Amino acid sequence: MTANVVDSPVPVASGRTTGFRAVVRRVARDRWAVVAAVVIALFVVVALAAPLIAAVSGQDPYRYHVDALNDFGAPRGPAGGVSGTHWFGVEPLTGRDLFAIVTYGARTSLGIGIAATAMSIVIGVLVGVTTGFLGGWYDRVLSRVVDVIFGFPSLVFMIALTAVVPTSFPKPLLVVLVIGFFGWPAVARVVRGQTLSLVTRNYVVASTAMGAGRWHVIRTQLLPNLSATITVYATISIPSMIGAEAALSFLAVGVTPPTPSWGRSIGDAIGWVQTDPMYLVFPGAALFLITLAFNVLGDALRDALDPRGGAR
Amino acid sequence: MSAPLLEVEGLRVAFGDAEPVVRDVSFALTPGRVLALVGESGSGKSVSAMSVLGLLPPEARVSGSVRFRGDELVGASADRLRAVRGAGIGVVFQEPMNSFTPVLSIGTQIAEAVRAHPTDLDRAGVSARVDELLRSAGLDDPQRIRKAYPHELSGGQLQRAMIAMALAGDPVALIADEPTTALDVTVQAGILDLLRRLGVERSLAVLLITHDMGVVADVADEVLVMRRGDPVETGSVVDVFARPAAAYTRQLLDAVPVLETGSGREARDGSAPSVARPGTDVGDATEASRASRPDVARLRDVAVRYARRGEPTVSGIDLDLQAGRTLGLVGESGSGKSTIGRALAGLVPVVHGSVEVDGSDLRTARGRRLRELRSRVGIVFQDPASSLNPRQTIGWSIAEPLLVHAAASPADRAARVAELLAAVQLDPTWAERFPHQLSGGQRQRVAVARALALRPALVIADEPTSALDVTVQAAVLDLLADLQDEFGFGMLLVSHDLAVVRQLADEVVVLHGGRIVERGTTERVLDDPQQDYTRMLLAAAPVADPARQAERRAAWRAWEGVAP
Amino acid sequence: MNALRFLAVRVLGAVVVLLVVAAVTYALFMLLPTNPAQAICDKPCTPERLADVQSFLGTDKPWIAQFGAYLAGIFAGRTFGSGASTISCAAPCFGYSFQLHDSVTNLITSRLPVTASIAVGAAVLWLVVGVAGGTVSALRRGSLADRAVMTVAVAGVSSPAYLIGLLAILLFGFTLGWLPTSGYVPFAEDPVGWFVHLVLPWCVLAFISAAIYARLTRGEMLESMSQDFVRTARAKGLRERQVVVRHGLRTAILPVVTLFGLDLGSLLGGAVITEKVFSMQGLGALLIDAVRSLDLQVVVGFTVFSALLIVTANLVVDVVYAFVDPRVRRRA
User: Fold this and answer.
1) Which whole number is the average pLDDT over C208-231?
2) Structural domain tally of chain A?
3) A172 inside domain
4) In this complex, do A251 and C288 lie within 8 Å of one another by their Cβ atoms?
5) Per the CB 3.0–4.6 Å rule, which of A303, B28, C188, C237 could disulfide with B4?
6) In this structure, are residues B169 and B87 in contact, taking their beta carbons and an 8 Å threshold?
7) Residue range A31-42, pLDDT digits in tens
8) Residue B33 above 90 pLDDT?
């Protein structure tokens, strides 16, 4: 006679399942999260297919259309020059097609944002898990390093760095490296904290006790149980990385012109707020939407992965 | 008997739209008497008690009648409830460390309780009252306790402070929700004695929630047995224990491990408890069988120290473990029993002595030899919730030792997993299930299966059943005994529960303060203890027999204040 | 004494961090290919002239000596060059701008009131609004108020300060004409004008942070209100407001305090952006200009100064936290 018949019927245990399918199902139940996911997908498609889309509209972000401007350099026509040829109007002073700029700008923002996130997550998780698990002098040294990096005024430093690095070094890569470099300590701290609490769990102790090597324990016991934290953190990191790139571009120390960047367009729009507010609105709305979408999705993911279950 | 202070009738509690967790429960509390609400996890006993004062989460829906001194409390206004809380009925909670606010001092929190209800005491008066309350709860240094923060006090001290706080409003009734579950048995005896004494002195009507039948026999006058939200049986403790009417009550009582031979169940139905094991007969037969079995592990003068300097956690430990026999390691929290268990698994820093497993010293083994040695030891931990990786299937967890030691091909591993699941009486097709789909008892069986995967010479069972319901506990203990007979491994059983040790162990070692205090065969140590500390441990543990427990209580009182 | 040891250890750690940051910053900017001497060398820059400038600056010495001189300068002041063309820089000397002809310290102190006004005012605003909003949300979970606050909060978290700033300028400044859109008026000169010019920058800078704090406070409050000790407080017969404030909020506020301290340290970053949006001549503008004109003395000095602020803020946070959470004191 098997005990599962003798024992009481299986109750729903206290923890929720956090398997991939279950999480997707739970997130799908949240209307806004689904909308957010669709928006993100849309932006990704736009970023990837920017040249195609621009070709459809018959424009590109580099060609000047001085004829679309009036004598003051402002776009002719209402709403910043919105017309059949220029769907979002044109850029003041240069007459470049704003739709193309916004579309290509998606590449810059998403590309740099996602690359920087990937970098900071990879380094941060590696450092966080190993310091939490292995401890000892390794942990002490790396924790000091994290403290030091936290001691840097990151935005200030980023601004300064972009000034002194020789122009031969590709700017987008520099921006990714700098933003990613200042991002990983936060990830490491969070992951280390989680790892420290996991390390006392009996299944991790059991693994070591049965003779498992350190990498086996990290790979099979720790990482799967950290995946929830990591996923949520990554989803929430992306918008702040995108924001950091935009901030740098806003301050004119980001990617060099003429590479389109939403941040720089917004920065340039300061002087045109009164005469051509649409120059601000289009890139601004794009930036806002993508950031909002990632935040909403990140929130939904966090709720779905919360082992305690139930809306917070 | 005076009129009941609190009358509960037809109580029904449901959370949100789910099935009710409490169905049609009725009971009454009278001054000077203790009613125990007893049941296993999920019985609804705590929920019933908390619903009296409206202390359930907002999504709870309570219906029925709860009348305190004639006033209906169900659906009462917030002000009315607030007036009753603390001043009419006081509450003592289960985990004192979590039930006090961590950032405020004890004195501040008790003073709050005093001032919560109309009083004409000034500041000095309140302080004096706090001191008085702490003293009446058995705390001799109220000045120090008042200034302390919760994390600075022990579990026993905190619980006494909690009792003092519950009495601050001069209530006429007291609800105690598992007040001693988180405490050591010697501390528990003190707290239960305090509750009993205060109840009598102040004519309190006490509602005691517990899962421990021994505690019921010790403290309660009346008992209500609950199961899955339904009331099962009610009556005086003497009656219900002697002649249980319901099958479930009988099942509960039968499952309680026996501490004293010749007591309780044996006397009742005349048959020996099903848990008696062959080979536990006293005398020469034991000595002979002992000599013929090979040693699987040996500890010689072992000392373990976690910090770099200072006193070792345990020292001077000599132990021998043989194949097919069980050694019970008994002690309270802080005695070092878990540390010794972990020393045998090579998980703690051993600073002195030798730890031999299967012939080799763990301390000097390195690399491959160390890994080999580790494969000779299996461990079963206390908490089934954290013993298994929630992200892996139970089949994976059971096969992990095989995977780590590259001992078998995937097909062989799967076969072995099926074999092990059958051995622990679980359905082999469950290998693809996840831990959250299993109950606590089932998870513990999986943990046992994992421990046996590599056919170890030694199994360390660290409080394997403490977190389980008593009926489930009985089954798991039986399983361990059967498996030992079948596979012949030596077992180190670490436990704070002497009755569990009596059931499984051939030999007993008593630990206190990191040192061995007494050792011998189970019968000898538990029936005829030589050391004061052992006697105190035995005297403090309550047994599920009211008449016998009353005698034991008197004997314990004689021991009160005697320190080892 | 435990408390003293705690403090000493923290201070030592802070000093070490500061030294490392200063060293790295100095190394990165002064010792990189971009030759600082080149930047201030008057045209035509002959090799002799360059050598003169280098000895004037002290960049012809080995790097460790350079860094040493720099550090010494912070405590005791420093002089560049010798004889007739001496330039002295009083302690604490974070550097000397040869383009602006003033010590970095002076430049910072002259612009500090602007940035400080923006930063501190915004900080107070966001702390109060954020914590209050988060608490209300947590207590009325699921209600309309909760959903409204959280929706605004998630939008706030997604809006970069400059975007909000520009939109605010558009709406309140140009369209409605209620508030001025640029410039700073010193408090001493005209308190009302000071206030009016700062309202928009405060709101803008505070918006995104208030959103973050509201979300954090809500989460922490939900967590702490579901703890056992809150149930105990209710069981004592305390009024709900006492339970929420003395037990729930008091415990939930700890991580918020930590975050606030850290945020104070990195306020400089946010101020930089806000100043550009509102065209205020604060520290942010100083930095941007210095970067544009490659005035490395200012860049390095400014970075070291902000690092000092951050490290000090972290230190203060640690101390305050230990004061507020008794559990930490024991471990120290």
Assistant:
1) 89
2) 1
3) yes
4) yes
5) B28
6) yes
7) 888 999 999 999
8) yes
CB C117 within 8 A of CB C198: yes
CA torsion C57-C60-C61-C67 (nearest 10°) is: 50
Contact assessment for residue B354 and residue B533, using Cβ atoms and an 8 Å cutoff: no
Answer yes or no: are the C-beta atoms of C170 and A277 closer than 8 Å: yes
Question: Which two tokens mark A116?
Answer: 């920087």
B400 touches A at CB < 8 Å? yes
**Residue B277: which pLDDT band, with cuts at 50, 70 and 90?**
very low
Lowest mean pLDDT among A146-155, A160-169, B504-513, C20-29: A160-169
Asked whether residue A311 is domain-assigned, the answer is no
Give the domain extent around A267. 21-305
B420–chain A Cβ distance below 8 A for any pair: no
Stretch B53-67: mean pLDDT: 91
> Are the C-beta atoms of B378 and B456 separated by less than 8 Å?
yes
Mean pLDDT of B190-199: 92
Residue C56, amino acid: F
CA of B144: how far to CAs of B96, B118, B137, B152, C1, in Å? 18, 27, 14, 11, 19
Find the range with the poorest average confidence among A156-160, A204-208, C33-37: C33-37
3-state secondary structure chain C: CHHHHHHHHHHHHHHHHHHHHHHHHHHHHHCCCCCHHHHHCCCCCCHHHHHHHHHHHCCCCCHHHHHHHHHHHHHHCEEECCHHHCEEECCCCCCEECCCCEEHHHHHHHHHHHHHHHHHHHHHHHHHHHHHHHHHHHHCCCCHHHHHHHHHHHHHHHCCHHHHHHHHHHHHHHHCCCCCCCCCCCCCCCHHHHHHHHHHHHHHHHHHHHHHHHHHHHHHHHHHHCCHHHHHHHHCCCCHHHHHHHHHHHHHHHHHHHHHHHHHHCHHHHHHHHHHHCCCCCHHHHHHHHHHCCCHHHHHHHHHHHHHHHHHHHHHHHHHHHHHCHHHHHHC
Provide the ipTM: 0.82
Give the mean pLDDT of B457-464: 93
Residue with token string 């802070």: C14
Q: What span, in angstroms and rounded, lies between the C-alpha atoms of B24 and B41?
A: 18
Indicate left, alpha or beta for B329 from its phi (over 0: left) and psi (-120 to 50: alpha): beta
CATH of the domain at A223: 1.10.3720.10
Mean pLDDT over A65-70 rounds to: 76
Which of B400, B426, B492 best probes binding to A when mutated, by most A CB atoms within 10 angstroms? B400
Q: Could you tell me whether strands C78-80 and C87-89 are parallel, antiparallel, or unpaired per DSSP bridges?
A: antiparallel
Has residue A270 been placed in a domain? yes
B244: left (phi over 0), alpha (psi -120 to 50) or beta: beta
Beta strands across the sheet bearing B60-68: B22-29, B6-15, B60-68, B71-72
Question: In chain A, how long is the greatest CA-to-CA distance?
Answer: 93
Q: By the CB < 8 Å criterion, does B240 face chain A?
A: no
- The pLDDT of residue B366 is 81
What is the amino acid identity at position B350?
Answer: V
Check C163 against A288: CB less than 8 A apart: yes
Other beta carbons within 10 angstroms of residue B432's beta carbon come to: 10
Single out the residue of B387, B381, B377 nearest to residue B462, CA to CA. B381
The burial of A137, by beta-carbon neighbours within 10 Å (0-12 exposed, 13-18 middle, 19 or more buried), is given as exposed
pLDDT at C318 over 90: no
Residue percentage of chain C with pLDDT more than 70: 90
Of C234, C242, C330, which has the smallest distance from its Cβ to B151's Cβ? Answer: C330
In angstroms, what separates the C-alpha of A18 from chain B's closest C-alpha? 8
> Mean pLDDT, chain B, as a whole number?
88
Residue type, C75: F
Give domain status of residue A181, yes or no: yes
B492, two tokens: 């180190």
Spatial distance between the Cα atoms of A222 and A209, rounded to a whole number of angstroms? 15
The β-bridge relationship of strands B326-330 and B490-495 is: parallel
